[in-house]
Amino acid sequence: SNELTQPPSVSVAPGQTATITCGGDIIGTYSVHWYHQKPGQAPVLVVFDDSDRPSGIPERFSGSKSANVATLTINTVEAGDEADYFCQLWDSGRDVYVFGPGTKVIV
Amino acid sequence: EVQLWESGGGLVKPGGSLRLSCEASGLTFPIYAMNWVRQTPGKGLEWVSGITARGTNTYYADSVKGRFIISRDNSKNTVYLQMNSLRAEDTARYFCAKEPGGVVVYHFDLWGQGTQVTVSS
User: Fold this and answer.
1) pLDDT, tens digit, 9 for 90 and up, residues A44-86
2) Quick one: closest CA in B to A55, which residue?
3) Beta strands, E only, B53-104
4) Which of A12, B27, B40, B41 is most exposed, with the fewest beta carbons within 10 Å of its own?
5) Cβ contact A48–B47 (<8 Å)
6) What distance in Å separates the CA atoms of residue A48 and residue A62, rounded to the nearest whole number?
């Protein structure tokens, strides 16, 4: 399947670590990117190319990938990290971008 | 300030047409590929279409192929989405999003705030 899967929600206490997964048969083939989106706002890029961070994104946000699962980790979670998180990749085999269904992080 | 500003959304009847615009400011627009992404209330993100920096290549999601046309006018720092034969399922907030390079293969490093499109009789 060319679809991406994410858990609907992840609950985490302040100061703890949140782990969000993104799975799919094509994950191992392409670079994965992550966005967060707060209610009423546009998405914001937090990790690109599996594990790189855009300028301005705290080091608490990190990405990794192994086989067909990409992971976004948020260390020392803050109340302000509560948002929806989406994974994304460019499927060059079909020339389309694919988004995961999103994970709501509840702090 | 670097920003993208969408306009052109509104209420349209099924089968109707609408043209969205996205104007960029504070950046060298002609060197970046651009995309449109939509989102239904409480739902996820769906990529709609992308166009390379010079407008040479365009890409579409299967759900809009043959109905939507993406284009750009680099002299006006604007990308467009012509939406034809609109359906109820096209109802969504439409965002434009910028790539960090000139081709449609990277990711989106800047998003606009979106414009709402509602298709209803």
Assistant:
1) 999 999 999 999 999 999 999 999 999 999 999 999 999 999 9
2) B109
3) 58-60, 68-73, 78-83, 92-98
4) B41
5) no
6) 10
